[in-house]
Amino acid sequence: MSKNKPLASLSLDLDNLWSYMKTHGDQGWESFPSYLDIVVPRVLDFLDKRGLKITFFIVGQDAALEKNHKAIRAIADAGHEIGNHSFNHEPWLHLYSEQQIEDDLARTEQLIESLTGQKPVGFRGPGYSLSETVLRILAQRGYKYDASTLPTFLGPLARAYYFMTTKLSPEEREFRKQLFGKLSDGFKPIRLYQRKIDGYDNGLVEIPVTTMPFFRIPFHVSYILYIYRLSPLLAKTYFRMAIWLCRITGTSPSLLMHPLDFLGSEDIKELSFFPAMNLSSKRKLQLLNDVLNIYSSHFTIVTLCQHASGLSQEENYL
Ligand SMILES: [Zn+2]
C-alpha cells in the first residue's frame, strides 16, 4: 500500500435473490431463494487476487438460514469487515416504529456475531432508507458509522424506472415511495463527515455512497455496468472522470458493489428485469477488473470502518 495515495473505501451490499424479488413484488421470495453459494466464492476469489479487504453489508434474514452459513462465514474468515444491512431488507425501514427498528438491528447484530465473531460497527439501510430514529438507535447501540446516503438527484428517476418494471399495487408502491431516495438527497454531502446525534458525544461518521462531484450522478459499479451496455468505452471514460473529479476536489470516495455486478445472465434467470442482466459474468468481471484498477491506481482501498477511522483524524466536521 502506498502512503502517498489518499484513502478510499469499497463495500458490497450482499442483497440476495429473495430481497430483489420481494422489493419488486415477485412471488416465490417467501422461501428466501439464495445465490450466496454462487456469488460469494466468486467475489472472495476476485478480491483475494487483488489483495483487497472490503466491507460486506449482510442481511440478517440470510444469516438466520443454515443454507447461507458457509458463504457468510467464508467472508469473515477471509478478513473482510461485516456490516449490518437490516434483518428484513425492507426499503421502508424508516416507517418502522422505534421498537421495530431496535429489534431489527439487534437481531441482525446477534446473528452476524454468532456466525462470524464480528459485532457490526457499521450500518447501511436497505434501498438507502434512513431516518433520524434509525440514526439515534445506531448511536445508542455503539455504531461507529452509517453508510445509507446516496447524494444524487437521480433517485426518483431510478424509482420511476423500477416501478415501470413491476406490477405493484398502489399500496405496495406507497411503502416503496422513498426507494432510492428523495430529490433533496442531491443536496446532501458527498464527503465523509461527522454526524452529530443529540445526547451522544461521539455521534456517527456518515460515509455517503460517493456520487460524481458537481454533477451528483452515481458512479457505483451497477451504474457503470448500465452504461457499459451502451458503450464500453463510455463506461470507462465516465468512471475515470468521476475518479479524476474526486481527486481534484479532494474527495475521498466510497465505492459500492452488488452481487449482480458479479452474476451474469447464465447464473440467474429470475432477475431479467434488472439492468445489465443480459451481460455474461465474464464481461462483468472484465469491467470490474478495469474499474478497480483505475480506483486502486488513485487510492489506497480500505474497509468502511478504516475509512471512518481515517476521518476522525481530520477536521471535517459539519
Ligand atoms: Zn441492499
What does this structure look like?
- α2 (36-49) runs parallel beside α4 (66-77), α5 packs across α6 and α9 (221-230) packs antiparallel against α10.
- The protein has helices at 17-24, 36-49, 60-63, 66-77, 98-116, 132-140, 155-164, 170-175, 221-230, 232-248, 281-298, 304-312, and strands at residues 7-13, 55-58, 81-84, 122-123, 145-146, 193-197, 200-206, 254-257, 300-302.
- β6 (193-197) and β7 form a beta hairpin.
- The mean pLDDT is 89.
- The protein contains 12 helices and 9 strands.
- Strands 1, 2, 3, 8 and 9 form a 5-stranded parallel β-sheet that branches.
- It is of the alpha/beta class.
- Bound molecules: zinc ion.
For this entry, give a set of tags:
4-stranded mixed sheet; 43% helix; 318 residues; binds zinc ion; 5-stranded parallel sheet; globular; alpha/beta
Give me a quick take on this structure:
By secondary structure, this protein is of the alpha/beta class.
Question: How does the SSE layout of this entry go?
Answer:
Layout: E1 7-13, H1 17-24, H2 36-49, E2 55-58, H3 60-63, H4 66-77, E3 81-84, H5 98-116, E4 122-123, H6 132-140, E5 145-146, H7 155-164, H8 170-175, E6 193-197, E7 200-206, H9 221-230, H10 232-248, E8 254-257, H11 281-298, E9 300-302, H12 304-312
Parallel strand pairs: 1-2, 1-8, 1-9, 2-3, 4-5, 5-7
Antiparallel strand pairs: 6-7
Helix pairs in contact: 2-4, 5-6, 9-10, 10-11
The structure holds zinc ion.
The site of zinc ion has 5 residues, from loops.
